[in-house]
Design brief:
This protein is an alpha/beta fold. Helix content is about 35%, strand content about 25%. It has a four-stranded parallel β-sheet, with helices on both faces. The chain is globular, with a radius of gyration of 22 Å. About 0% of the residues have low confidence.
């Protein structure tokens, strides 16, 4: 799920978990080594809906064929995808599905050679590589040496390490409370807490109930839940106002939601609060939709008594 959020965020330019903002949207190639096409498409559609983007609008290219990394067929496929698609990101999930049997996973030197066969073409093409691997079951804590097999911890330049926070998961309800460690040999790292709710899986319908929702915060932030909620709401309201100031009377409410990203409910709550305070003004205007112009309600900031010439207001735009 986390890798898929990253892929959708980069392909759309929408903030990942409402926090990490891509500099630009770029094509993404996803090597999908387990689960198959149907589960992947269902998951990606739900993630796109949660992030407010359309799957058909993304340059997201899944590859469902699997072959060992060292094989000619994989190497040729990788070079072709890098040349033709020119992706900003290659994701490979999971590593063991592409490992093959010719390389001993416990041999550091053999593993290093195999990993470089994967990363070198990506580096040469200017693409980032995000490879999903697993942790061993015998260790404790979250650190690179927990990654299974030899070599991956030494080879990785930047990494995301995920673990369940103790006693904080409910698989049946689809509720996961995760520790997320982001690290790099270039700049150090940061620690986060990610609460991810994917919904209960209904065995009768074969689908998850409800929409995907999440909450991401720095680890060790304020211990008061209400303080955290208030701070996040204030940040979201500020982002909405900043966006309207930059693009007055240009966007529908759905345009604004799509630009802001994140879950639907926090956005709706922030919008309702700002609306109650009289922050918004609106007018009917022409809006480009699928190659045609439609009349829609477009939003801006309302001028105030103290700031009649408030930048970004509806009257300012008019």
């Amino acid at each position: 799920y986390v890798a898929s959020f990253i892929a959708v965020g980069l392909a759309s330019g929408v903030p990942i978990f409402g926090q990490f903002i891509p500099r630009e949207n770029l094509p993404v190639v996803a090597y999908v080594g387990e689960g198959g096409r149907q589960p992947w498409v269902r998951r990606i559609k739900r993630i796109c809906a949660a992030m407010g983007v359309g799957l058909g609008d993304l340059e997201l290219h899944p590859i469902f064929d699997v072959a060992p990394i060292s094989s000619p067929v994989f190497q040729e496929s990788l070079r072709r995808d890098l040349d033709e698609i020119q992706p900003g990101l290659i994701t490979l999930d999971p590593y063991y599905a592409y490992h093959g049997t010719a390389t001993r996973a416990s041999d550091l030197h053999q593993e290093g050679s195999l990993l470089n066969q994967l990363s070198t073409p990506c580096i040469d093409a200017g693409a980032s590589l995000l490879m999903n691997n697993h942790m061993n079951q015998t260790g404790s804590g979250i650190e690179l040496k927990r990654i299974t097999g030899a070599g991956s911890g030494e080879w990785a330049d930047s990494w995301l390490l995920l673990a369940h926070r103790k006693g904080k998961r409910d698989v049946e309800a689809g509720s996961f409370r995760l520790s997320l460690e982001i690290g790099s040999r270039q700049w150090g790292g940061t620690s986060w807490e990610l609460d991810l709710d994917i919904g209960r899986f209904d065995v009768d319908t074969g689908q998850h109930d409800g929409a995907i929702a999440w909450d991401l915060r720095r680890a060790g932030a304020s211990s008061s839940t209400m303080d955290q909620v208030t701070a996040r709401a204030d940040r979201l309201q500020s982002r909405i106002c900043d966006l309207l100031a930059e693009h007055p009377v240009e966007m529908t409410r759905e345009d604004i939601k799509r630009k802001i990203g994140g879950s639907r409910q926090p956005f709706d709550d922030a919008w309702a609060s700002l609306s109650k305070e009289g922050v918004f003004s609106s007018m009917k205007g022409k809006h480009a939709e699928g190659g045609r112009l439609a009349t829609r309600t477009l939003w801006g900031l309302a001028p105030t008594m103290a700031e009649p010439d408030r930048p970004g207001s509806v009257e300012d735009a008019a």
